[in-house]
Design goal:
421 residues, alpha/beta, UDP-N-acetylmuramoyl-L-alanine:D-glutamate ligase, Protein-Tyrosine Phosphatase, Chain A, 2 domains, six-stranded mixed β-sheet, 15 helices, 40% helix, 17% strand, globular
């Protein structure tokens, strides 16, 4: 089977949808010899900020001389982005080899009508890949929820839950407490937990952590302050347990202060467990970390900004960043949203401050019909373009040098836009 055949075979399992539970992933990994038991793991869950925290941690550990595997989802442009070792994507030949390894196990499961999901298969592939490459650390991002997510068969040395807000209510529950309980399901016995959750969500996490005898480090508004910055960089002062840090990053958005503070708490936990990381390495790593598609500027005159905000909390952060960090005459919004999101809430947050709204649709069956979105917006200048590239060209045609074109609503939308741009 060639590379395209391997990818087509993997994606053929998407039709079975989301099936939460750990039995199938445990079986697959058991047949592989439990590869996830061969390296130290940091498990990263939560609602928003997971990707940034994974990138920051990866950067610090790689810069400190360790071999680091990073598994995240979804990808922006290429399937191989999900599997990273020392900041390099997996090769096509390596994917082909791993598919050939796992395929007989999956075919046996299918014959027994014990069909795994797409995410379960690729999670097992990630675990096996990191074992074969003999990584020192693996940074594993939760796919959905936590308690029954396929990644939750690992035994990490640190657990991170970034923050919690309403998302995937049909699957995880319709209240913060229910969603928090699902996300707190990644907390393990005697394993330290770091979180930026607040309010009722934090109460749930603390209760679960107490029952697991796990120490909890809480990141809140007293853990960091933004010192200065604009569209080129940001500088934060972070108050760690061991010391204070002055850290710069080129990743935009004031909320990155929270993600940086979470990362510092994880780094200090690693240091206290004998992992050698220098202050110089920390400072350099934050400055050099990039996270494509998240508050990413890809053009000037006009500014073209990509941000994968895809839920209400993420859209609030984007709205605040636009107001605080950017100066522009008109905001031209290009937005495409998945239908399984709280579409009305997302639109209500970001559209009132937009001067021109261009509704579009990423190439996925989960995408919302832009004409249905249009009915939810009470503004005059709302335009529908059925393809993202057409939406971009239209926005560039009408934009002036001092305007800003912001492309958002979904990582699928941003990924397609990034491909085109």
């Amino acid at each position: 089977m060639n590379y395209k055949g391997c990818i087509d075979w993997l994606y053929s399992f998407e039709r079975f949808g989301i099936k939460l539970g750990l039995e199938r992933i445990k079986y697959i990994c058991g047949e592989l010899g439990n590869p996830q038991s061969n390296y130290r793991i940091i498990h990263v869950g939560g609602t928003n900020g997971k990707g940034s925290v994974c990138k920051f941690l990866e950067s610090v550990l790689v810069n400190s001389g360790y071999k680091v595997g990073t598994y995240t989802s979804p990808h922006l442009q290429r399937f191989s982005e999900r599997f990273i070792i020392n900041k390099k994507e997996i090769s096509e030949s390596e994917i082909k080899k791993l598919v050939e390894t796992i395929k007989p196990i999956i075919e046996k499961m299918v014959k027994e009508n014990n069909i795994p999901t797409f995410f379960e298969i690729i999670t097992a592939i990630a675990f096996q890949y990191f074992k074969e490459k003999n990584v020192d650390f693996a940074i594993i991002e939760v796919g959905l929820g936590g308690r029954y997510d396929a990644t939750n068969i690992i035994n990490p040395m640190i657990t991170i839950i970034t923050n919690i807000s309403l998302e995937h209510e049909k699957i995880l529950g319709d209240t913060i407490e229910k969603i928090s309980y699902e996300k707190a399901g990644i907390i393990k016995d005697d394993i330290p937990i770091i979180t930026a959750a607040t309010g009722k969500a934090l109460d749930v996490i603390k209760k679960v952590a107490s029952g697991k005898n796990s120490t909890t480090t809480v990141i809140d508004s007293n853990s960091w302050i933004k010192k200065k910055g604009g569209i080129d960089y940001q500088e934060f002062q972070v108050y760690g347990t061991l010391k204070e840090y002055i850290l710069k990053t080129t990743i935009l958005g004031k909320y990155q202060g929270e993600n940086i503070a979470i990362t510092i708490a994880a780094i200090e936990t690693l240091q206290m467990n004998g992992v050698y990381i220098t202050d110089e390495s920390i400072i350099e790593s934050f400055l050099n970390t990039v996270n494509p598609g998240r508050m990413e500027i890809v053009g000037f005159k006009p500014i073209i900004l990509l941000d994968g905000a895809h839920n209400a909390a993420g859209m609030i952060s984007l709205k605040n960043s636009l107001e605080e960090d950017f100066h522009y005459e008109k905001l031209i919004l290009i937005i495409g949203i998945l239908s399984d999101k709280n579409v009305k809430a997302i639109l209500d947050i970001i559209t009132p401050g937009s001067d021109i709204i261009i509704l579009t649709k990423p190439q996925t069956s989960r995408a919302s019909d832009p004409f249905l979105l249009k009915e939810m917006i009470c503004k005059k200048q709302v335009i529908v373009k059925d393809k993202i590239k057409v939406a971009i060209e239209y926005a560039k045609k009408i934009a002036k040098d001092k305007d800003i074109i912001c492309i958002t609503g979904s990582l699928y939308t941003v990924g397609e836009a990034r491909d085109y741009l």
